[in-house]
Each structure stands twice: as C-alpha cells, then as structure tokens.
Amino acid sequence: MFFSKEEEKVMFRLFKDISEEPHKIYTLNFEDGSILEVKQDTCYETDNGLDEEDDDYQEYNACAMRIVNVIKDATLDKRYREQMLIEISYLNYPESITDCNLKKI
Fold this sequence. Notes:
Number of domains: 1
Strand order of the largest sheet: 4-3-2-1-5
Order of helices and strands: HEEEEE
Number of helices: 1
Oligomer: single chain
Number of strands: 5
Shape: globular
Strand content: 35-45%
C-alpha cells in the first residue's frame, strides 16, 4: 500500500493495526465530541472526485468503518446510526482512535 506523506502521518498505523487484527472494535473520538464504536469493513484507494487533469485532484487511501455503537452523536443533524458505514481517511481522521484494549492507534 502506497501512502502520500500527508496520509502516512495519520493513516499508516490504522492500516497496519487493521491488517494485523481485521475484526477489532475501535473507538473513534471526533473533534465535535461524537464518539463511535466501529469495526473495519474494507480499505480501499479512492479520489476526491475531480478530473485527473485538475490541479487539485488527489488519490488517497480510506477505510470504510461500520458503526457498531453510537456512544455520542454530537452532530447537529444526528447523522450517525448503528450499522451505517463511514469513511475514514487522512482528510477526516478522528481526533483519536483507540482499540478494544484501550491502545491509542
């Protein structure tokens, strides 16, 4: 898996941990105060939806995480629901991620 310099700083440890234990439950703590328990669904390469010729075009790696428990939904529109998928990438990486053993990822 190739990571850009920006991605490697935040995504490498998560991808490494998932590859070692793909069924682990993680707790995501977001800057807005939302707290979710999730597990990895799939990891993939994606892009920002712009044409490849566009100067702002980016390819990056992401993880689709399935929400298994909404501990706190601090969003105004209460967007999080159990069993829904959310995408985690270096563009929206949570404030912190801990695994089921309380190890910070």
